[in-house]
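Hi V.,

You were right to ask for the full record rather than a summary. Here it is.
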Amino acid sequence: MKLKTIIGATLLAGVSALPTYAQIGEQRHNLAVGINGGINLNSVSFTPSVKQKNLMGITGGLTARYISEKYFSMICGAQVEVNFSQQGWDEYYQDYPTLSYTRTMNYVDIPFLAHLAFGKNRGLQFFIHAGPQIGFLISDSEKISGNWEEVIAGGANIETEQHGKPIDNKFDYGITGGAGIELRTKAGNFLVEGRYYYALSDFYSSSKKDYFARSAHGVITAKITYLFDLKK
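Predicted structure:
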């Protein structure tokens, strides 16, 4: 699936919904900005497969949100973020505990989210986020330990093509979504959220002549966000 198709479909859905909301929605103009931070649990979908456990990383950045209207009990808006995000994978082989390989990939991620919430203007709200996300790889590093050559020479069926392999595609894109709760107070808005990112792109080339047919990120994120209102 192409990035243009994803973004185009998202924009088309939003534009199609605007006339209906404009006619029967309660108009609001609430702009809020703030910061967010949390942790990532990362893995990578490889074909051929690579045995892994979750790699923990950090994420954090800036958030801007615009609430446009309230449609019956549903509060509708849009949110965009610019985040630093650590992703990658951590290989794990139960039968060979001395072997260790970790690849950490640092991205600048930009999710474009629809924001749908239910609750009171002041107090507790439940919200849902969903939309496309793009990312730009800014650096990567790897850590390796253990006698891999000896283990493989002994007949171990372990995939090592990814070790030391340069990243081919530094532009990443996919879809993300999650849910959480928000506490709205006079001192600002406090959000706790769980989110999942599913990459549609591969960071290694995946043509018929390439080794990996798939190499895509999967990221579970838990984060806290603080927003303060600029315009109510």
